[in-house]
Amino acid sequence: MSPAPRPYFSVAGLRHGARAALPAFPGFIMFAIAFGTAAAQKGLSLGETLGLSAFVYAGASQMVGLEIWQQVWSPATILTIVTVTAVVNARMILLGATLQPWLRDEPLARTALNLFLLTEAGWLIGTRYHNEGGRDVGVLLGCALILWLVWLIATLTGFFAGALVPEPRRFGLDLVMPVFFGVMLVPLWKGAGSALPWLVAGVISLIVHALVPGYAFIIAGALAGVAAGMLIE
Amino acid sequence: MTTFGAFIASPWGSVVVIAAMALVTFLCRIAGVVVMSRAPSSWPPFCRP
Q: In chain B, which residue's Cα lies nearest the Cα of A47?
């Protein structure tokens, strides 16, 4: 039995990864445009919107973060948004764990860059390549870099589209976020049984929202949904 | 109001928020790799790289 091929890095891999990311472009572009539009409607500046997309670069938490966004911050609201971000992005711990065998011999700086740009789409494309026997870490990075650039450009486009519309309600743009999250649920639908955690999350959120001021309902709903899912599984 | 409270209530508050969100997201991204790099041999095989 021949030993498993060792991971390596090449510039050709970067190009290969960028090409492999093409199928993820439509989803990324739509999501980022939706975020940019929603951010503009919420009153975020261009710098804040691009800062979120460039440095946080995690669509779901950016969208949820908009719900909590304040014009004037306090320690309590910052703690809330940071906690919500951690809860929403905790799934990335598992994504990173599966990449460890591939990245363990890489230079620290390149690993940090690869992980900073980690997304589900990039992880999926990279993992598929790895499972087919590929070991070029450049593919993972090339895919991640091009997706990050696409994300920024589409965010910018969405921001200007949202900012240019003086009456967002007239065009239904104020519905971007609820519609977006509703549409996101459609491909996840696997029958009424597996939707039970969603129901638990929704009910707990509503109860906590009615009883507790602030944004604790988001965290409570998310944790209740996770707990319900674990119990059912 | 404390100095920190006054600072985050200023326009710089959103910079602090974005930095904090970026930091916590990055920690989520690296945590899996860090944990798996330090997985002791006593862990069951499916938990080790």
A: B15
